């Protein structure tokens, strides 16, 4: 057993729970920082210490970080469409600032901040982006993308003050324990429930969530302070992803490709109806549709070269996700 205790914020979430498991495999003691109302289903049966609090509370964070050597800050509001955009900004920007302040006062040995590929630009020519691809202000679509961009700027300010932070930028993780689910997981669930009747010409960089968790520890152990690392794997068009899911499940893949303009119109109609009539989160995120105008392809070469991030086959990762959703009641019988 390692003498090191690590703090994981957002520990009950999709990626957070995988980081907790990666820590336990390495023999670390784990302190899980969770909200009072968080579901702890993802952490059931794990030998960890829970610390309940508010990411905006310096007192709660100070208590949580006491005695910890490393911090993995994953707590974030991950929604492309939100009825409470200001809350997304507050949680992701102000919460990160609070964690940095507490880490600085505690003299933490190492902190890994979980950012997103949403903070990285996309080349006009469609080539995969890397860590140095600049993001233009006009591409800051919606509260989530803006929040992660400005939160990452807070981290860079912290690095300038001497806080030892490494930044990781996961692409589109898939796998077990995606309970909410994330936007990527939601389209898998929709596919399993035969709700996808068409697709649009876009693409994602798919990566196994367990590889992303492993990448967090590799970043803590080998990453350079102030650097960012894309934790990704394979670039696939939406059509290719659907075809892989079809092979795994024997569910037919949609054959109709809709223009972005049509999908965006549908998203706006769904947004208005959901917000004003149903009073719930829209099923088709306008922000997500706008982002899909470009193929969200990224290069994980830096993380492979400098960190040695594992590269589990995306077919395996998607099969894990499918199995977990089926076992946990997300699929209609």
If you had to describe this structure to a student in words, what would you say it looks like?
The chain has helices spanning 14-25, 58-65, 85-106, 142-160, 183-192, 209-222, 238-249, 260-278, 286-291, 301-307, 314-327; strands spanning 5-9, 29-34, 49-52, 70-73, 110-114, 165-170, 172-174, 198-200, 203-208, 228-231, 234-237, 256-258. The protein contains eleven helices and twelve strands. The radius of gyration is 19 Å and the shape is globular. By secondary structure, it is α/β, with parallel strands linked by helices. It has a domain at 5-175 and 206-235 and 296-313: NAD(P)-binding Rossmann-like Domain (Rossmann fold). The model has no long low-confidence stretch (mean pLDDT 88).
Quick description:
This protein has 333 residues and is an alpha/beta fold.
CATH third-level topology of the domain at 5-175 and 206-235 and 296-313:
Rossmann fold
Number of helices: 11
> What is the alpha-carbon Rg in Å?
19 Å
Widest sheet, order of strands: 3-2-1-4-5-6-10
Terminal Cα separation, in Å? 44 Å
CATH homologous superfamily label of the domain at 5-175 and 206-235 and 296-313: NAD(P)-binding Rossmann-like Domain
């Amino acid at each position: 057993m390692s003498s090191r205790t690590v703090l994981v914020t957002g520990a009950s979430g999709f990626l957070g729970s995988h980081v907790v498991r990666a820590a336990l495999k390495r023999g670390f003691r784990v302190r899980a920082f969770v909200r009072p109302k968080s579901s702890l289903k993802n952490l059931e049966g794990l030998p960890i210490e829970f610390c309940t609090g508010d990411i905006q509370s310096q007192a709660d964070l100070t208590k949580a970080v006491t005695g910890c050597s490393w911090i993995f800050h994953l707590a974030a509001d991950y929604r492309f469409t939100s009825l409470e955009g200001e809350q997304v900004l507050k949680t992701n920007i102000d919460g990160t600032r609070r964690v940095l302040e507490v880490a600085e006062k505690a003299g933490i040995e190492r902190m890994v901040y979980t950012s997103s590929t949403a903070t990285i630009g996309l080349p006009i020519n469609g080539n995969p982006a890397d860590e140095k691809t600049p993001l233009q202000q006009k591409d800051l679509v919606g509260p989530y993308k803006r929040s992660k961009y400005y939160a990452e700027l807070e981290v860079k300010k912290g690095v300038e003050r001497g806080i030892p932070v490494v930044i990781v930028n996961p692409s589109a993780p898939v796998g077990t324990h995606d309970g909410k689910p994330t936007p990527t997981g939601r389209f898998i669930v929709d596919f399993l429930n035969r709700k996808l009747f068409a697709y649009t010409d876009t693409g994602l960089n798919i990566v196994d969530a367990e590889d992303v968790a492993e990448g967090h520890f590799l970043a803590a152990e080998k990453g350079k302070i102030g650097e960012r690392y894309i934790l990704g794997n394979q670039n696939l068009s939406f059509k290719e992803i659907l075809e892989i899911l079809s092979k795994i499940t024997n569910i037919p893949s949609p054959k109709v490709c809709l223009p972005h303009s049509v999908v965006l119109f549908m998203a706006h109609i769904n947004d208005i109806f959901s917000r004003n009539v149903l009073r719930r989160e829209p099923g088709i995120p306008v922000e997500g549709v706008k982002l899909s105008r470009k193929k969200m392809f990224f290069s994980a070469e830096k993380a492979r070269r400098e960190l040695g991030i594992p590269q589990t086959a995306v077919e395996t990762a998607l099969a894990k996700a499918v199995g977990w959703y089926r076992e946990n009641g997300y699929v209609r019988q």
